[in-house]
Structures are given as C-alpha cells and as structure tokens.
C-alpha cells in the first residue's frame, strides 16, 4: 500500500508534465498553422519555379524580369491571397526540373503552362485548369504536312513536356531528339540539326514570327490536359486558395483580359470566361 502511494505521488506530476507538453505542442502547432496557413517554405513569400524561354506563357525580359500570360495571371491570383508582387519570387529552370523541385520543396509552386496529367498527379498536385490549347509541329520542311510526314525525320521535343509523351506514343518511326528548352531546340532546327520541333501552339506562333522560314505544319488539340499551377502533394490549403483566386480572376474578366493581351486572335476556351 505504501509502495502504491509512493508511485501515485511520483506518477501524478509526470502525467501532468506529459499533458502540459502535449498541450504546448498542440498550441505551438496551431500557432505555426496560423502564421503559415498555406504551408509555404517562407510564410511571407511565395517561391515560384518557372521557365525563361516559353513565350508567351512565361519568359525572362532583357533585365531579368519574368513576364507572360502565366506570370501575370499568377501574380493576380497571389494578390487576391494577400501576396503583392514584391512578395512573389520567380526562378527559371529547365522544364524537366520543375515538378521535382516542387515535390522536394525547393519551390512552393511551379508556373509554366504545365499540363495536368494522371502521371504527373502521382507526385504533385495541380490547381484547377486555366489554359488549354494545341500542340504544334514547327518546321521549315515543306514535305512535313501531317504526322505521317514525320516518319524518318528528327523531331525535337523539350524533355518532360506533354509533347514528348505524345510524340513517343503517336509519332512512330520518328527520331525524337530531347532538349532542355525551346530556344535550344529552335536553334537546332534553324541550323539543320533537327527537321522539326514539337511545342505549344502559341510558342510556335511566336517563333514563326521571329524566324520567317519556320511554319506550323501540324496542330493537335490538347484540351484534355489543361495547364494548372503545380503544388506539393497534400498542400490542400494552398491549392484551394489558388483555385479560389483563379475562379475569381475568370469570373471578373481578368483572365479574359490577359488572354486577349498575350494571345491576340487565338480561339478563347468558353470554360474560362465569366459565367452569367
């Protein structure tokens, strides 16, 4: 009986100490969640991974600033979340490194007209879609008029893109040459190293305007893999906030205004226009 009393006298403070520690831990966790509700690397700044050569989606200007449709749209969405332009940082990377960098928490989000696919959703999460369009074969070869014309040809693709996956599956008999970005692929196209390059329609249009000898030979619809903002898997609060901002930007006409600015004359998907 004495031993039990001694044990009870010792155990009671221990239990109280454990309970206090658990309470403090829970309180600390709640405080951290309140101070960083979106689970950002730095709660005061959104760190964005992007590309510097994917005009008009995202590209770097001569003074090193990033701009383009995706950049301006993201900045608008971020401002709706309480992050002004000076609280959003952009870093350029090769496309193939963007998703791993988000998954490994180097960036909070990747923004570069990144198509949503089931394969990609195994490692990262996507916001709702905000852009859909076409995949285009760019070439100076008049013999390439359709997919069959690519057989036996050397076709450039940017590693990790929808174009690489589509070409691997559908352009049988074509020699695929992988590049880190569009600029290096188009340079290879211009010097004859490859016969054609497979990229987004809007980017192809920009290169065609810059290099008059290049033409869009094949346009393939890609509405089943709309572009979305990429976030770390499981960061639902951040993803939901991005979705809310996106829907607001679509509903109040911001999306439409930016689309007309960056894609003049291009078909406009109805699903992103204001709903009456």
From TrEMBL:
Residues 45-265 form the Ionotropic glutamate receptor C-terminal domain. InterPro entries: Iontro_rcpt_C, SBP_3_CS, Solute-binding_3/MltF_N. GO terms for molecular function: ligand-gated monoatomic ion channel activity. It comes from the Bacteria. Keywords: Plasmid, Signal. Residues 1-33 form the signal peptide. Residues 45-266 form the Solute-binding protein family 3/N-terminal domain. GO terms for cellular component: membrane; periplasmic space. Coiled coil: none annotated. It is found in: Periplasm. Its main location: periplasm. SUPFAM superfamilies: Periplasmic binding protein-like II. Belongs to the bacterial solute-binding protein 3 family. This is Family 3 extracellular solute-binding protein. It comes from Rhizobium grahamii CCGE 502.
